[in-house]
Records
---
Amino acid sequence: MTVILAADDFDLTEEAPAKINLALHVTGQRADGYHLLDMLVTFARHGDRLGFRASARDEFSLSGRFSPLLAEESAGGNLVLKARDLLRQAAHDAGFEAPPVHIHLEKNLPVASGIGGGSADAAATLRALTRLWGLSLPSDTITAIALRLGADVPMCLVSRPLIARGIGESIELLPDFPSFAMVLGNPLVGVSTPEVFRLLGRKDNPPFALSWQAKSGRMQWIETINGLRNDLEPPARTLCTQIATLSQLIDSQGALTTRMSGSGATCFGLFDNIEQATAAAVSLHSLRPDWYFQATETIAGGT
Ligand code: C5P
């Protein structure tokens, strides 16, 4: 008999919130080819969930709507296992035990979709195993491991509203940033991040000129966000024609802002409140039952 596990069946659970790029400006390129970015980032309450428990040997299991895709591609799964292995190595180097562990990934987020699923899973693994193994490693060591796993992993470690610069390693927290009601939409077509970067027309776009003050309210932030862009959206739209339709559908539900996150194809709409976001998700689902729509709220700064 096959037992289907869920994250809640485990001793320790950890959330892996979806990462939302409210804005992303490409401002330059490093000698190694990585692009310099200014990113306004927040995190959704909706995300993947992971479960952890001590085990006689290392194990990894999957469940959730998007787990079949991962089993095929194993991209996000591999990032979880890479995070486990790199943290274990650092633990051993510092004289800690890092015994075998069963990790379960409940994959609720679409794969390769610009909302950091794999990065969020890797960051959640670093946070949870630090607790499970009782590690006290310098935060610099954990951040360095996170950056080795991917440019978005350090910000997913924090999972709070922030501005990230460089390739994502330079992080400024926004403790007064508000929570937003949001709809996430995805046409369930994966978009390749390197391909999107390759198709970029300009790599020296203006950086953020932010007019935000620490105590800006929700509507002031919406105005600020509306004045910013995602520079990866035009090249992603040429690779994935469904993005234009998706964006227009979300917009038609009365969103205050509609934009693509990361390198796509996920688009988000910001709404006045969760009731409106929920109604929009229901309506979008009836228009395109084959796509992914999810109403959620983002995590406020300082929580
Ligand atoms: O860091 P991550 O593995 O998510 O990046 C995937 C790919 O996206 C990189 O190999 C690189 O081609 C591109 N990328 C980039 N500049 C960034 C982040 C990613 O060119 N700042």
---
Amino acid sequence: MLKESVKYERRRSTMVREQIESRGVTDSKVLAAFRKVPRHLFVSEALRDKAYGDFPLPIGEQQTISQPYIVAEMTQALHLSKEDRVLEIGTGSGYQAAILAEIAFRVYTIERIYTLFVKARKLFDRLHYHKILARYSDGTTGWKNESPFDAIIVTAGAPEIPESLVNQLEIGGRMVLPVGNKHTQDLIKLYKNENGIRTTNLGGCRFVKLVGEYGWREK
Ligand code: SAH
């Protein structure tokens, strides 16, 4: 029988070729990160064999780990270099944070659901992702003490661009986030310079809700 790690490594290279490169992601650092991070460890054991499929998967608490291609597109849009400090809102499984940690200098990630936060933090320890700092709180207010950030990624759908996060972005910084209603959103890429912000629409997407002070209000 093929060793588990070899089996999954092969699946990762197929995933990169067929789902990510084929759709136009070309950044070699991003592609290398996707070949390396063991996505199957970020889902429950029952879903492990589906981990490299071209779709999102449930991670508990009615939340999901995004489809690999979306994670790749968002990561590439951040134009990361190895000196960058990145803030992620919505740790979820921790997969996106691990991808970011393969490329950037440090990753700050915030999750508002305690069980997901604890699970992700344990996994970061187990996989030796010491570059990732995880925090349990409402990420829509950002992480003021560690700001400004070179890049910010929001992995849950916001009703509008949270001003609080724009304020914590460095001049020259990039932000990627889904913005729209509760069912569908547009993936927005934002660039901040001395004069303000410039946004580009990367196209339609579908994320779970960003819930918090500068997101959707809790019922
Ligand atoms: N990046 C994740 C995707 C998680 S889904 C991954 O790679 O698996 C979105 C996550 O955002 C959910 O876990 C949800 O609980 C979280 N979330 C929603 N609103 C939030 C908020 N205000 N602050 C922090 N996390 C939030």
